[in-house]
Amino acid sequence: MSELSIQNISKSFGNIPVLKNVSLTIRSGEVHALLGKNGAGKSTLMKMVCGDYERDSGSILLNGEPLPIHTPSDAKKSWHRNGCTRSRYGFVSYPIRF
Fold first, then answer.
1. Are 16 and 23 contacting, i.e. CB atoms less than 8 angstroms apart?
2. CA atoms within a 13 Å half-sphere pointing along the CA-CB vector of 35
3. Is the pTM of this model over 0.85?
4. Per-residue pLDDT tens digits of the chain, which is 98 residues long
5. Paired strand residues for 44
6. Rounded to whole angstroms, what are the CA distances from 5 to 22, 25, 39, 78?
7. Separation between Cα atoms, residue 86 and residue 58, nearest integer Å
8. Is the CB of residue 29 less than 8 Å from the CB of residue 15?
9. Which domains does the chain have, with CATH numbers?
10. Which residues in the chain belong to E strands, given as ranges?
């Protein structure tokens, strides 16, 4: 079974922590939604997956292999190579393939 795993992601803006050790695993066939109040870090997490923001710590894995996402260019290469697309609204369409 294929999976995208976000492990122990942390991000601060200056001295303000936004995300602290956030983890999420999405397996093929699953659908997930991120819900929370304004300022909860939903967009920040997705922007790190898309390479818009550099994470302070943690990792992003595809089938257990690290994805080298540190810039939007890195994300575009990684996602395109794995059949993923990103919309202009920042959403990632991720068809996990076997």
1. no
2. 2
3. no
4. 678 899 999 999 999 999 999 999 988 778 888 888 998 998 899 888 888 889 999 999 988 989 888 787 877 777 666 555 555 555 555 554 43
5. none
6. 11, 4, 23, 14
7. 22
8. no
9. 3-93 (3.40.50.300)
10. 3-13, 16-27, 57-62, 65-66, 85-86, 92-93
